Amino acid sequence: MNHHDKIIGLSIWLGISSVLPAFADTAIDFLLQKGYDQLRRKEYTNAAATFSQAVRSNPQDLQARRYLAAALTRSGQSKAAAQQLQMITQSDPGKAYDQAALGEAYLLWGKTKLAVTSYNEALKLDPSLDSARLGLAHSLLALNETTKAKQVCLEGLKITDNTNLRLQFKDVLGRIKQLESTPNPESSLKPG
Known about the structure:
Structural class: mainly alpha
Strand content: under 5%
Number of strands: 0
Radius of gyration: 19 Å
Order of helices and strands: HHHHHHHHHHH
Number of helices: 11
Largest sheet: none
Shape: elongated
Helix content: over 70%
Distance between the termini: 68 Å
């Protein structure tokens, strides 16, 4: 498998829909290859450092920033990932995947309301983006907005034909059902 095929494979793995352009700069090409290899070995912190070098080499390279954000997210640096994705969405606001990735970073960072906003924006840009719909359901559930989360999951089940995603939507619905069947101690304290 050649370098370009590996990068395309990584794009699919990360969910990035656009194909990487041919790289003219061999230094960036080397760094992207090195970072890709580190990601494959699940060396996320090292990959983030390598992709960071690529971004420093060419700060305008949004694709390098996307890979950096993915490595940062996977290495547990969701705040730094969100900052990279904010730059990307400001420079190129029309990409649903970038908005969904920003939602994921926000959710992992604990900025759940911002995650909801990003996931909703992703779905406005691409209503068929199931990963954004699932992220939205998780975010709404984290905010204890179970009715909205249930609606999002039911919509996802109607739309997606991806077996794995269907199972994940069903899992969220199961957690919602569990929450709804658990008595709320605060409500028992209120006068009837």
